[in-house]
Specification:
The complex is a heterodimer.
Chain A: H1 10-41, H2 48-66, H3 70-91, H4 101-123, E1 139-141, E2 146-148, H5 149-171, H6 173-183, H7 185-190, H8 195-217, H9 227-242, H10 247-267, H11 275-286
Antiparallel strand pairs in A: 1-2
Helix pairs in contact in A: 1-5, 1-8, 1-9, 1-10, 2-3, 2-4, 2-8, 2-9, 3-8, 5-6, 9-10, 9-11
Chain B: E1 21-32, E2 35-46, E3 50-55, H1 61-69, E4 74-81, E5 84-85, H2 91-95, E6 99-102, H3 114-119, H4 131-137, H5 139-143, H6 154-166, E7 172-176, H7 184-199, E8 203-208, H8 211-214, E9 220-225, E10 228-234, H9 242-249
The chains are: A mainly alpha, B alpha/beta.
Amino acid sequence: MLTDLLGFPPQVLFGQLLLGLINGAFYAVLSLGLAVIFGLLNIVNFAHGALYMLGAFAALAAAKWLGISYWGALIIAPIVVGAFGIVIERLLLRRLAGVDHLYGLLLTFGLALVIEGTFVKLFGSSGMPYSTPASLQGGVNLGFMFLPWYRGWVVVASLAVCLATWLLFERTKIGAYLRAGTENPKLLQAFGVNVPLLTTLAYGYGVALAAFAGVLAAPITQVNPLMGSNLIIVVFAVVVIGGMGSIVGAVVTGLAMGVIEGLTKVFWPEASATVIFVVMAIVLVLRPAGLFGKAS
Amino acid sequence: MNTDTLENHDIGGQHVSEHIEELRIQDLHAFYGESHALHGIDMTVNQGELVTLLGRNGSGRTTTLRAIMGLIGHRTGSIVLKGEEIIKSAPHTIAHMGVGYCPEERGIFASLNVEENLMLPPNVAPGGMSVEELYEMFPNLAERRKSQGTRLSGGEQQMLAMARILRTGANVLLLDEITEGLAPVINDKLAEVLIQLKTRGYTIILVEQNFRFAAPLADRHFIMDHGHIAATIHKDDLESSQHIFDEYLSV
């Protein structure tokens, strides 16, 4: 049964495929948050990586000081960090409405540096462990590979959150407001919808998604202040490939890029760090608006 | 001194007085950045009246509607709607006072289908028309309710833009160039709808280019020129005022 596939032992192939799927799940949730934010605020949220890191730290702090379990943190961290995002939007981002995109980029990039710098100062740049919840320790041998329960859970939880977000956007009244607000916020407001409030909530939701991903990542990667800055570069490439502001594009591209990256690790390990950027370059040449984006 | 409320504003028709002020604009100035677009507009519109804003392109008609709606950041002067000062109000607050806005470019949302477009604006006052009533008024929309909003023809998009504000209960309608670029048969339909709305007691401000369309419908015409109201003409004085129309409207 365990014949080699294309000259590679199946354990290696499926192992990398799973890793790719997990990375893809993180790319999907993070780029989904970026898409929600870009849609309504027209801001490329460079603070996203830092907010993802805050999610992981919130889980760590909650466990350490309040004795809150992983499952509690999965709910509480997104709420707390999302609330922090709402404060950022109200105090800072709101003032950039109507000015050049560049200011939003500079502000959020600066915020990321400040947040990450503060955490490096306070906690150092080495990682801190966050333990896998007891109920998800261990795993199952599928015959062709070993599947750790936690890794499987990460994929399932990410997909569930993406699906819920898609349903929110496509099947609810709030979703119709969000779609309309992405297209023509002024007209939507002239119809009586409180668009400034909607915008604040959209930012809070996008940030909460980042924090959720941060909590999911905490048991896998070490929790460290720079965990987001490494990931976010790839996530931006994913957003560019999928098309700015496209919900479906963010999710599908995120997963696909994770898998492509994983497979590249099997077949051509040296290229695995750059393959996503190569795909980005090709997509930009062929479809500048991204695979799922609408040309403006 | 206007104390009438939405509750006693009888959209059903019979009891609308011509002398209750719905909207009073005084010394309204509006600015787009550095550019001064309205130079002190004064006008009043009574409840149940249909008035037009006529004038050449760039005379300030659309800007006036946008200023009433709160869509222009920098405006000064006074806009009193149903007895309440709204010069500093946000657009969504103004909408909830019973104002429906139909923008020049129609503003149909591409990411929403016909029914979603129709259901999008929140209810702003009781007494809006039901979806069934609207589909009866605009049968084309009923047939295409699952189509993407921007796949409709221009005429259908215009009907959708009208229908969606009639659903909300708004009884003051700001309509910007609703006939622009549409076939005569569609314009006839729109004229028919406006007459129907007028008999139901709606207050309507119509920005028009097409004088032939507007003339038989309106109670009064405000002629705009360079951000001013250059003349106000009552429907009974159309013939005697022909020279004014010629002066301000002819190209």
